[in-house]
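So, does this match?
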Amino acid sequence: MTGPRQLILNLEHRPALTGDDFLVAGSNREAVAWLDRWPDWPSPALVLHGPAGCGKTHLVRMFLSQTHGRLFTGSEIATRDIADLLEDYPAYAIDDADALVGDGPETALFHLYNMVREQGRHMLLTGRESPSRWPLRLADLRSRLRAAPSVGLGVPDDAMIRAVLVKLFGDRQVRIDEDVVSYLFLRMERSFDAARRLVARIDEEALRQQRKVTPQLVRDVLNRDDGGRES
């Protein structure tokens, strides 16, 4: 039987902002390849899109780490003078950029795009869907974002989720057996966010009770945690 340590060896490891490894698989390989191409992008902007929990925010952090870039929040874009925001960074990122809808936010994002382009810089945007489906009212912004490269991220597959579970426990210096991975995998939401949340809860409970992480402990946590789907 394949042990939990072997589960992560089939996936490529990449450095992330926190110093942890970032796992590369089919669901995110194209997006990682685009980040690797920076600064040789054909457009000032790149858009990553996919459902919640597919790893968009983690990719943003990896991008900012490799470019020494700056993260903008939606409130900054909507309320601050764009010229004041553009400090001396080679790249910028906006997570959940599809939420910047409406006359004010869209105008601000349009000006930001133009200034980034004029200064030869780049920005990474994320959203739930492709920019072609964002409900943008500003035609000029809509045309610019639709012309930018757009890469979809898939839901993590089974092998990725199992590998992430092993890695997250390993990051906490917690050794687990295959039966723990299998028990948790069959009862959890298939997302990176759910994996992080559950591993943290399980580790906290194990420390509190001074117990080894076992399927029984996982069951106890899942029965109390809305993040799990115990059957």
Strands lie at 12-15, 21-24, 45-49, 70-72, 91-94, 122-127, 150-152. Confidence is low (pLDDT under 50) at residues 1-11, 15-20, 227-231. The chain has eleven helices and seven strands.
